[in-house]
Amino acid sequence: MNICVALGGNPNAGKTTLFNALTGSRQHVGNYPGVTVDRKEGRYVQNGHDIHIVDLPGTYSLTAYSVEEVVARDFLVNECPRVTINIVDASNLERNLYLTIQLLELGIPICVALNMIDVARSRGIEIDHQKLSRLLGVPVVPIMARSGFGKQALMAAVERVAQQPLPQPLRVSYGRDLETTIQSMEQVITKHGFLTDLYPARWIALKYLENDAQILEKGRATEARIADQLVAETQKVGAHIEETLETYPEAMIADHRYGFISSMLKQGIVKERFDKNRLFLSDRIDKVLVNRFAGPLIMFLVLFGLYQLVFTYSEVPVGWCETVFEWLSDVVSTQMPDGLLKSLIVSGVIDGVGGVLGFVPLIMFMFLGIAVLEDSGYLARVAFMLDRIFQIFGLHGSSVMAYIVSGGIAGGCAVPGVMATRTLRSPKERIATLLTAPFMNCGAKLPVFALLIAAFFPNSQARMMFLITLISWSGALLAAKFLRLTVVKGPSTPFVMELPPYRLPTFRGLMIHTWERTWQYVKKAGTVILGISILLWAAMTFPRLPAAQVAQYAADRDHMVAQASPAITDELARWTGDTPLSAGAARLKRELTASRGRQSAAALRYSLAGRIGGGLEVVSRWAGFDWRTNIALLGGFAAKEVIVSTLGTAYSLGAANDDDAQASIASRLTAEPGWRVLTAWSMIVFVMFYAPCFVTIVSIVRESSWRWGLFSVIFNTSLAFCVSVGIYQVGSLLGY
Amino acid sequence: MMKINIRNMKVDQEGTIASVKVGGELGRRLRDMGLVPGTAVKVQGRAPLYDPVALRVKGFTLTLRNNEADHIEVEIDG
Q: Which of A40, A301, A501, A730 would be A282's cystine partner, CB 3.0–4.6 Å?
C-alpha cells in the first residue's frame, strides 16, 4: 500500500521518537515554505508497505496563533494525508485528547497511537484502550515509541483506516447558548458552499466563533457578504454571552471540549491507583534542580560543563580538520607554479572551505550537547529559572542557551549559537535573540582582544577579559531590549510552557538530531561561504601592484644580496633552517623578509580592499582607525580570525600566524604613533559589536530571512561604529 | 471558600480554577493547556526569582509568568 500519512500530536508526546522508530534512517529534513519549521519526511517500508510519513510540528491545538499550528493545519487540509496518526501521551491523556477532538472535528481520518503506556502504568494509570477506541470511533493502538513496541499493530490499523471511507466530522455539543448560533451559521455556510470545499461547515462556524484570524481572512477573500453575515452573528452571540455569563465564545468552546473529554474519560476508561497530582520521580528531582538556591548553582555548573566538554572535545577533531587543510594547501603550494591560480586555490578555495569545515566538529558536539539537554527536559527548567531576568529585556528564558553557545562564556561560536535559537518557540523573542547572540565573544574574536590587551594593558589581562565579557553581555541585552522596543516590538509571547518529565534521551534520537543539523550546515553554508571567500580573496588581490613597482622591490632585494659578501649569500643559499645563522646572514635574511613584507603591504594597499579601507578613513578616523585597521576589519567579515593576520600584512610583517608574529604586531602597535590605549578600546568595542562573520550571517539568513541577515550587518556595524566613535571622541576630549 | 489569584498562592497550595478572564492568544494558550474553570490546580513551585510559577494541572506540570497567571482566579478552601 502506497499512501501518505501525517504524524501529529502534542510536543513531548514522543512524536519524534515514533517518527524515528517508523522511518529509521529513511528520512530527510526540509523546511515548510516561508517559515523555519522543520518539515521531516520519511518512509516506512515493511511487510509490503511503502508508506510516506510526514512529521507535523508538535502542537497543543489547531488554532492559528503559532506558525507550528498554521503549518500543521494547512498540511492536513491542503495536502490531505490519507490517514493521520495522532500520538497521545497515555500518562497525560486528558490534555492530549484536546488535540484529538479537534482533529476529529476537522473530519479527517485518524488513528490514535497511545504512547508511553509503560510510563502511565508506572504512574498507576491503566487505560482501557478498546473502550476509548469505541467512544472516539477510531482505532487506538497502545505503543511504546522508545522500544518500537506496537509499531506493526499501529501500521496495520493505519492501513485499515486507509481502506475505510472518509469519516463524518465529530459533533461536540457546545451548550444551548452557542448551539443555536452554530447551527444557524452552519446552515448559511452549507447553503452557499462557503469554504466547504476545504473544511466541514460546523468547523468553519466554530472558527468564526473562536475568532480565528486565518479563517476570517480566507472567508473575506472568498465571499465578503457571507463573511460579514457570519461575523455579525458571532458578535451578537458574543455580546450576549459576555453580558450574561461574563465569558467569551472561544472560552466556552474550550470548556465544552474539555467537558466532552472528561465525561468520556469518566466512563471507566482511566483507572488511577494514585492521586493524580502526587509527586513522581521527576518532581522529586525538580525539588533539587529548580530549588531556589541549589537550582541556579547546578544550572551554572551544567552549562559551564557542557561548554567545557564541547570546546575541549571538539578541539581534537577541529585540529585534524586544520591539519588536513594545511597539508592540502602545502601540497598545492609546492606542486603548483607561483601565480594567480595558485593564490586563488590556496587563499580563496582551501582557506575558505577549510574555514567552514573546521567548524563542523564544533557544531556536531554542540548539537549533541543541546540535544541531550533538550531531550532530557532540562532545557525547559533552564528557561523556567532564568525567564525573570531575560523577560526584562524582552527575551525568553530559553535565550540563554544561544547566548552561552555564542560566547557568553568567552570562546564560543555564534554559528551554533544562532542555530540554537530553534529551541525558542516565541517568534519575536527568537529574532531578538538571534540578532544579538553574535555580540558575544566568540573564539575568533579572542585573538584580537588578546593582541590588543597584550599591547596596551599588559598588567591587567585577566581583569580586562572579564570586563570585555561583561561589556558584551550588557551590550547584547540592551540591544535586545532596543530591538524589542523598535523593529520586533509588541507584547511578549505567552510563556505558558510545559515542564516535561525528565527522560533519558535515546541514542538514536540524539544521533539523528545531531546529524541533521550538521549536514544542513555543511550543505548550505559550504556553498555560500566558498563564493564569498573567493570574492574576498579577489578584493584583496586585485588590482595588482603595477609591474614597475614589483620590479622595484625585486631590484631592492637584488641590491641587498649584491651588497652582501659572497660568504653570506652562500651561507643563506645553503641554509636549511636547522642551524643558527651567522650575524651577517641573519641580518640579510631579516632585511629581505622586511622588503617582502613592504611589498605585500603595498600590494594590499593597492588592491580594491586597500582602496576601500583608504576611502573609509574619512569616516573611520572618527573612531581612531586608519586604513590598515579598516582592511583588517573588512577581512573580519570573512572570519574574525582574519583580523589579526591582515593587520600583520598591513603593517608589513607578513602573515602573522604564530605567537612570535603576534608579539611583534603587539610591539609594533604600541610603537605606532596612531595607536594609544583609547584606540585599543575603540577597536575592542568595534570588533565586539560589528557585523557578524559571513558564516554567522548565512546562519541568520537560514534561521530567519535574508532581510534579517542584511539587517544584522547594517545594524551591528552602525551600533559598533557609534559606540566606538563615542568612546574615542569623549576619551580624546578628556585627554586620554 | 474564597477566590484568589495564582500570584498570591503559596507553594503546595491547592485550589480549583474559578475563571480565566483573558482572551486573545494568551487566553487560548491557557485553555489549550487545560486551564479551564473547574480544573484542580496546585502550585508546584516557583522560579528562584519568584516568577514564573510552576503549576500542577491534570497530572502534568506547566509554567507561566505571574502577569499571565493574574488572569486566573482560583477557589481555595479556608
A: A501
